[in-house]
Amino acid sequence: MGMGISLALTVALILVAWAGAAAGLQVVLGTVIPYLAGLTFLGGLIWRVVRWARAPVPFRIPTTCGQQKSLPWIRYAAVDNPATTLGVVARVALEVLLFRSLLRNSRFELREGPKLVYFWEKWLWVAGLAFHWSLFVILTRHLRFFTQPVPAFVGWLEGADGFFQVWLSALYLTDVVVLVAVTYLFLRRVLIPQVRYVSLPADYFPLFLIMGIAGSGVLMRYFFRVDVTAVKELALGLVTFRPVLPAGLSALFYVHLFLVSVLLVYFPFSKLVHMAGIFLSPTRNLANTNRERRHINPWNYPVKVHTYEEYEEEFRKHMIAAGIPVERAGPSAQVGIPAEKEGQ
Amino acid sequence: MYDSGKILTGLLIFALLVTFPVWYHLGRATPPPEPDLDTPVIAGLAEKECIESTEYMRAYHMELLKTWRDLAVRSGEKTYVARDGEKYPISLEDTCLKCHSNKSRFCDQCHNYLGVDPNCWNCHVAPEEGNR
Amino acid sequence: MSAPKPQELLKVSHRPPRTGWMDTPVEFRKGTWCYPGKPKSLEVLDLPFPRQWSPEDEDWKLPPNWKEIVLEGLRERLHRFRSLQIFMDACVRCGACADKCHFFIGSGDPKNMPVLRAELLRSVYRREFTTAGKLLGRMVGARDLDERVLKEWFYYFFQCTECRRCSVFCPFGIDTAEITIIARELLNLLGLNIDWIATPIANCYRTGNHLGLLPHAFKDMVDFCVDEIQNVTGVGIEPTFNRKGAEILFVAPSGDVFADPGIYTFMGYLMLFHAIGLDYTLSTYASEGGNFGLFTSHEVMKRLNAKIYAEAKRLGVKWIIGGECGHMWRVLHQYMDTMNGPADSLEEPVSPITGTKFENARSTRMVHICEFTADLIRHGKLKLDPSRNDHLVVTFHDSCNPSRAMGLLDEPRYIIRNVCRHFYDMPENTIREYTFCCGSGAGLGPDENLEMRLRGGLPRANAVKYVREKYGVNTLACICAIDRAALPPLMDYWVPGVGVAGVHELVGNALILPDEGERTTDLRGNPLPQPAGAGAGNGDPGGAGAAPRREA
Fold first, then answer.
1. Residues 3-32 of A with CB under 8 A from C
2. A20-26 CB contacts, 8 Å cutoff, 24+ apart
3. Are residues A202 and A125 in the same domain?
4. ipTM for the predicted complex
5. Which residues in chain A (165-184) have CB-CB distances under 8 A to chain B?
6. DSSP code string of C63-110
């Protein structure tokens, strides 16, 4: 059900852009919406992070995934159970860049016996990593439309990505990888019963959106060519705040641009904020130095406790009878340490 | 604990990265390329028109060149029939570069603008320029 | 309590039902939920809305404005805990956590998948606190808070042992324990707690320990241990209580003084301290290291925990040693200093025997007994005869909290290898940070919940079964009082023939006291395998680490 709604929505968005381009709404599709989308993305994400940041991290709660730093002769897991800022940086970096935790993924089977067996489940990690890195490389490659002159690193990246030459022109590896990976992520969401059960329309929608974006991009690059000079004029016009609408850009291009704009708007208000969240997750970005350095809780309010005095008041008789030292031998006795003291 | 400093630094870095194309061009003009059509041969043409429409050539010239390569090298075909029925010899030198004899002021204009490094010139020699 | 036969219990399907999770109401089935908190227990701590009620009843006697209370409570906590906001917003429902939960493995109930457990709360968060949820409702997984939702919360947030195993696998480190802790806080705003938590916290508040042992009774229990030690070793030990001027305060989980097999662990502590002549005292006021407040709310946790520093200050000790207990160490390690510190009256801990500075406890000034003992053994300060444990083939169960909220992994193993000669680890994806919960943590240990405990304990038991079949393991060592209470029935059910022992019980067996007589039995009165032939000194670490990489 969720899938159908999301698919219909994505198709509708494509049709809207197509119709808009046909109806001559290039100003809206090529200038107004991209600006609004860019602004919403940047502002929305900053707003989201600031909202998070306004809540404190009252307790230091790292999830420790290895030996703690304790006695000097016990080797500790400097990254998985960090005790230094460097270790924390390494831990977060590994999470962000290599999806360290996802690499641990496993799958179980309950067999006759009874016997539980576990398997290393690497495909989600492989696909997730391929998906995100491809998107990142593709995004960076797109800088060639947004910069003039094009910085050297963009050229290098294109060179590496387009290492395979097919039909005399580069076939970008990432174009293939992102389509394969997004398809895998979609299929596993549909085919694994548990994952399908937890999936919301909001989970399918970004997948379809990204399929649409990658698909339209691939079509433009390999099948229905667009005048890339005109594309760049439009892109540069946007980022230099001198927007232009070059003639001759196809509806396909405006579909691509519109879907990207929708993704940008969708980003800060959806689960896609995991991009920022991963940096701020308190179970990952804190050092396990809990007993070494005191962590401050800004709202650490005083609470009602049962004091020793109240305790002794209630149980004094029993304590004295049992030979347990008390502060006050009787209701009127003076405070002092009882004479008796058991030796070792 | 808020770690506001770290978070603001992170947000600043993020904002700078996202807006890279904006501040990259500050105080710098980015004029669109102007492929130069002023060559003696073009000047001598009665009707200043390429073998296909300008619109098509801008988007598909590389595809056309590939098609020509296949036709000439693999099928031995020597003649290209354009969409308007006009026939042209499939030859880089006698067709394309005859008119566009100014690589640096024509081809390179857009290619440089887009950071494109076509592999035409790996094999083919660019015509000498300057004799307009 | 009777539970179905193992073969019955194992008829588990992990396929979700046909109805969507929002349309599948919770069913309170006997054996899978815990009795509600008694009103008089709630009253001890002035917790709101004490009343007689039952989860099985249609009417939970909620206050008329219960919804406002919960939503206001949620709003407040969103402002207090960045963790909560991020864990509400960042989940992508990738499902990596789904089969990491012992309760999901053992029950197949999809709402025991950590992702869905969190969605129970997230759905309400979205509805009330996000624009998308307000506008789009179910499209973005938002739903209204109603009594059905609340009942679901009660059932499933008291079906999470806060073990944090899912958070090891989550690519964003989303910690269901944190979500459960906060969800339980919200439930407690309405007086919805379970009695196995509510009564211990009331006891602990008033008497200093969860079991409600009054000072003299606590002393009696310790004296019982002392007598037992004398019977086994001929050595008379005289622990002190509430003694001012002692160098060290020792705080153990009260379960260790109270019940078999914890008492053997407690004997081990006493023997150890006696052997090295430690200047320490026990406290009847701070006679509980454990803290079921953690399973109630941050506030109750703080109220109970406050006694430890207060007592340390009153007695004028220099620092504190804590006994073997899992969630106790979560509180001591990750919360105590922040909540009730700074421990200014104390000094940075230094072992009086070895001179070792426990720099990792510089601020909290509380040291885990395994750290303390490992250091003693490392410096050759203990005379040990590991052959006295030769009748035990040992494996080690990493308790959830010391593993995933601390990283105390190698210290207990080092001790075991020095006091036992037959030690085999379980398969590696069931130990250390991947360890499986006993199934009874976070207050879920009552008998009426036995079926769920047995289900949740299946992955742990299954790994024990593996090493039992492969190496003949007959002893499951652990460093947690809840484990010592929960694992014996679990073993009897799934892996008969495996006993449960604290690490310091094994230490007590192997430890040669300066003035002891000939021992003929271990601490439990079982005859020793043969006259101890091996001499004193550190034992040969057994076949440790020989476990295979994976069970297949």
1. 5
2. A20/A254, A20/A258, A21/A250, A21/A251, A21/A254, A21/A255, A22/A251, A26/A245, A26/A249, A26/A254
3. yes
4. 0.93
5. 167-169
6. -TTHHHHHHHHHHHHHHH-HHHHHHHH------TTGGG-HHHHHH--G
Q: Tell whether the torsion through CA atoms of A160, A165, A169 and A175 is positive or negative.
A: negative
Measured CA to CA, the distance from residue B103 to residue C247 in angstroms comes to: 89
Q: CA of C267, closest CA in chain A: separation in Å?
A: 16
Question: Looking at the partner chain, which of A53, A59, A324 has a beta carbon nearest the beta carbon of C219?
Answer: A324
Which of A244, A264, A280 represents a domain boundary (last residue)? A280
Distance from C-alpha of C459 to C-alpha of A201, rounded to nearest angstrom: 33
Residue extents of the structural domains in chain C: 6-30+48-192, 208-378, 386-510
How much is the pLDDT for C546? 37
Put simply, whether A167 touches C (Cβ < 8 Å) is no
What is the C-alpha separation between C355 and B44, in angstroms, rounded?
99
Interface check for A59 against chain B (CB to CB < 8 A): the answer is: no
A221: domain CATH number?
1.20.950.20
Q: Are residues A65 and A27 in the same domain?
A: yes
Token pair listed for B3: 């770690």
Interface of A with B in 73-132 (CB under 8 A): none
Instruction: For A183-221, write each residue's pLDDT tens digit.
Output: 999 999 999 999 999 999 999 999 999 999 999 999 999
In a domain, A38, yes or no: yes
pTM of this structure: 0.93
Mean pLDDT computed over A302-313: 97
Residues 6 or more apart whose CB falls under 8 angstroms from that of A155 comprise A144, B115, B117
Q: What is the extent of the structural domain holding A336? A: 307-344
Query: Quick check: A91 contacting C, CB < 8 Å?
Result: no
CA distance linking residue C82 with residue C216, whole number of Å: 44
Selecting from A46, A144, A225 the residue whose C-beta is nearest the C-beta of B115 gives A144
Of A147, A228, A296, the CB nearest to B24: A147
Range A276-296 average pLDDT? 97
Answer whether A70 touches B (CB < 8 Å): no
Which of residues 296 through 315 in chain C touch A, CB cutoff 8 A? 298-299, 302-303, 306-307, 310-311, 314
Interchain CB distance below 8 Å, B21 and A146 = yes
- Domain tally for chain A? 2
pLDDT at B130 over 70: no
pLDDT at C312: 98
Residue A189 has which token pair? 């969401």
List all residues of chain A from 299 to 338 with a beta carbon under 8 Å from chain C. 299-300, 303-308, 311-312, 314-315, 318-319, 321-326, 337
Same domain, A262 and A134: yes
C183-to-C90, C240, C269 alpha-carbon distances in Å = 18, 41, 37
> What percent of chain C shows pLDDT beyond 90?
93
CB contact under 8 A, B25 and A236: yes
Contacts A196 to C, Cβ<8 Å: 16
Among the four given CATH numbers 3.40.50, 1.10.3720, 3.10.620, 3.40.1350, the one describing domain C386-510? 3.40.50
* C433 shares contact with chain A (CB less than 8 Å): yes
Whole-Å CA distances, B115 to A148, A174, B32, B54, B63: 9, 19, 13, 21, 18
Nearest CA in chain A to C24: A197
| Residue C352 · residue C279 · CB < 8 Å | yes
Q: A261, A280, A299 — which closes off a domain?
A: A280
The CATH class given to the C208-378 domain equals mainly alpha
Together in a domain, A199 and A335: no
pLDDT at position C551 over 70: no
Dihedral sign for Cα atoms in the order A222, A225, A229, A232:
negative
A106 in helix, strand or coil?
strand
Domain boundaries, chain B: 34-122
